[in-house]
Amino acid sequence: MARISGINLPNEKRIEAALVYIYGIGPHTAKDVLKVSQVDPNKRTKDIDEAELNRIREYIDKHVKVEGALRQQVLLNIKRLKEISAYRGLRHIKGLPVRGQRTKTNSRTRRGNVRRTAGSGRKKSTDKT
Description:
By secondary structure, the protein is mainly alpha-helical. The protein is built from 6 helices and 2 strands, in the order E-E-H-H-H-H-H-H. The protein has a two-stranded antiparallel ribbon. Helix 4 crosses helix 5. The termini are far apart.
C-alpha cells in the first residue's frame, strides 16, 4: 500500500484518482504532480514501483502544501478574520454561511437542522371561542 504525506492511497484506483485522497491535492494538481514526476496517470497504485513513488513524494513535499500544514494555514486565516472583526469572520463566529449564500432557505447544513418557522397563529374555524 502506497503511503504519501501520512495517507494510505487505495491500491485498486488509478494513481491520478488516488492522489486526490490527500487533503490539498485536487484533480488538476494530481495531473501536474504526475506530469512533473514522469509517472503514467493510468497506472494503478499497486503497480507503481518505489522509484516512481519517491519522485511523487519528493515533488509533493517540496512544492505542494498538504495535510497538516494546509489545515493549520486555513485555521489561522479564519482566526485572523475573527480577530479583525471582518464580515466573514463574524459569519464564522455566528455559524452562518460565509460566502454569500442566502439564509432565508437552504442554510440547513451550516445552521444545523433548525426549523424556525411557526404557524400563522389563527385558530381553525371548527374551534369554538
